[in-house]
Amino acid sequence: MRHWFKDGVFRAVLRNAGYLGSTKLVGALFGLVSLACASHALDPAVFGMLMIVHAYAVGANGIAKFQSWQVIIRYGAPALQKGDRKPARDAIRLAFGLDILSGLVGMAAAMAALFWLAPTLHIDADHFGLTLFYCTLVPTMAAATPTGVMRLLDRFDLIAKQGLATPLLRATGAGISYIFHLGFPGFVVAWYIADIVGDLTLWGLAVRELKRHDMLDALRPGLFGAARRLPDAWSFVWSTNIATSLSSAWGPVSNLIVGGVLGPAAAGLYGIAATLLDSASKPADLLTKGFYPEIMRLDPSSKHPWKLALRTGALAGGLGIVVVGLIFLGGKPLIGLFGHKYLPAYGLLSLMMFALMVSMASAPLQSLLYMVGRQRAALVAQAAATIFYLAALAVLSHLFGLTGSGSAYVLGNAALAVFMLIPVMASYHGRHRYALAGDAKL
Question: Is the pTM of this model over 0.85?
Answer without folding.
Answer: no
